[in-house]
TrEMBL record:
Stored Pfam families: AMP-binding (PF00501), AMP-binding_C_2 (PF14535)
UniProt-recorded name of the protein: Phenylacetate-coenzyme A ligase
Transcription keyword on record: no
Occurrences of domain AMP-dependent ligase C-terminal (ranges): 319-410
Superkingdom of origin: Bacteria
GO biological process: phenylacetate catabolic process
GO molecular function, one term: nucleotide binding
Keywords, alphabetical: Ligase, Nucleotide-binding, Phosphopantetheine, Phosphoprotein
Family note: Belongs to the phenylacetyl-CoA ligase family.
Subunit structure and binding partners: Monomer.
InterPro entries: Adenylate-forming_Reductase, AMP-bd_C_sf, AMP-dep_Lig_C, AMP-dep_synth/lig_dom, ANL_N_sf, PA_CoA_ligase
């Protein structure tokens, strides 16, 4: 992905004063004269930023504006290690709202819609981001936050919500309850905007079919504003990233070499307008590719493909490296297997044991055949044979936030 002239102009403008405004970058680029960055090749020689850098800068070492310009902070949703705190200026918040409103418009959502917001509020960027965009668009926000499914359903019916926003895990939980109670015909839902965790095609189809909605994938991370920096369009072929605010690259996760469009690697993002905490060549750890060519929807903004996983969510069993996305692919092509699964990894008497629990409506011999088929496909696709254990539909836990699916007790 080549920098456009407009993007490079914004980067050079940022670089002109960056080291003066930011002690973080004054240290990081101590041996680099940013005025010398005049070409694509020059830019690609700049060092990456990492989450570890931001953790070392805790609490506000990343801040690049005076205190009086900071109007808000947000923090990543991670539960381990030192948190990452990102300061926002009023302009940052406004830019984020503009991007999010653009996401809603791209999904065909209008000021006449009523948007039920179920992601969490607080330090996490999710709920407040969905609300910001909704208000900027001019639609009605129904700021429910997570949980309390009974009240969610009541508001959904009484207020005639037309759009549901959620994590895929909570959207599935709502879909199952709505189907179980036969409520679908009493709802006005027409679209869903889903984000915060990767999910497979089988899960997507279940939610879309059970709720009778068109689903759009939304992308974002706290370090780069939050959700709303990109979304899928009506073509449902990748997510557009707003290139007037962000520049994206795909790099080899091991070497850091920039990869050509179309090749899968790690997504790296540079902010072009962010004031409170600008990020230069930030490694997201998300694995994807830039989809070559122009989208049939007509949007000029580049697209990234559905995320295949993260560089840090790979797990290794019996000499095989695998990602959750590969497990989901196996489920997708196993007849009778549903979308929900758990992977249990144990070491018993010095031997790794891999168990894949998955839901199915099948029983008896049909269930056993499904288990055998899944184990066979898993071996063919990934390289090792798991113990495949089918369980009844609804038996695996559902989450109001993100669902944990990999449990490794070896360490």
């Amino acid at each position: 992905m080549q920098l456009t002239d407009a993007q490079f102009d914004l980067i050079k403008k940022e670089f002109a004063t960056l080291k003066d405004r930011s002690p973080f970058y004054a240290r990081k680029f101590a041996d680099i004269d940013l005025a010398d960055v005049q070409t694509q090749a020059d830019f690609e020689k700049l060092p990456f930023s990492e989450k570890a850098d931001l953790r070392e800068a805790y609490p506000l070492g990343i801040q690049a504006v005076p205190d009086e310009e900071v109007v808000r902070i947000h923090s990543s949703s991670g539960t381990t290690g030192t948190p990452v705190i990102i300061p926002y200026t009023a302009q940052d918040v406004s830019d984020w709202a503009d991007m999010f409103a653009r996401c809603y418009r791209t999904a065909g959502i209008t000021p006449l819609d009523r948007i039920q917001i179920t992601p969490g509020y607080g330090l996490w960027t999710a709920g407040i981001g969905f609300q910001l965009g909704c208000e900027r668009l001019g639609a009605m926000a129904i700021p429910m936050g997570p949980g309390n499914t009974e009240k969610q359903l009541k508001m959904m019916q009484d207020l005639k919500s037309t759009v549901i926003t959620a994590t895929s895990s909570y959207a599935l939980l709502l879909a199952e309850v709505i189907t179980e109670r036969g409520l679908r015909d009493q709802l006005s839902l027409r679209k869903g905007v889903i984000g915060s965790e990767r999910w497979g095609e089988k899960m997507r189809s279940r939610i879309a079919n059970e709720l009778g909605i068109e689903i759009f994938d939304i992308y974002g991370l706290t370090e780069i504003y939050g959700p709303g920096i990109g979304i899928s369009c009506s073509e449902h072929n990748g997510m557009h990233i707003w290139s007037d605010y962000l520049y994206i690259e795909i790099v080899d996760p091991k070497t850091g070499e920039v990869l050509p469009d179309g090749e899968v690697g790690e997504l790296v993002i540079t902010t072009l307008r962010k004031q409170g905490a600008p990020l230069i060549r930030y490694r997201t750890h998300d694995l994807t590719r830039i989809i070559p060519g122009t989208c049939a929807c007509g949007l000029e903004h580049p697209r990234i493909d559905t995320l295949t996983g993260r560089t840090d969510d790979m797990f290794k069993v019996k000499g095989c490296n695998m990602f959750p996305a590969q497990v989901e692919e196996v489920l997708a092509i196993t007849d009778g297997a549903s979308s929900e699964y758990q992977v249990m990894i144990e070491n018993i008497s010095g031997k790794d044991i891999l168990t894949v629990l998955f839901e199915t409506p099948l029983e008896g011999e049909a269930k056993e055949k499904c288990e055998q088929e899944l184990a066979m496909i898993f071996k063919a696709k990934i390289g090792c044979t798991p113990d495949a254990v089918a369980v009844p539909m609804g038996e695996l836990p559902r989450s109001e936030k993100k669902t944990q699916r990999i449990f490794d007790s070896r360490y």
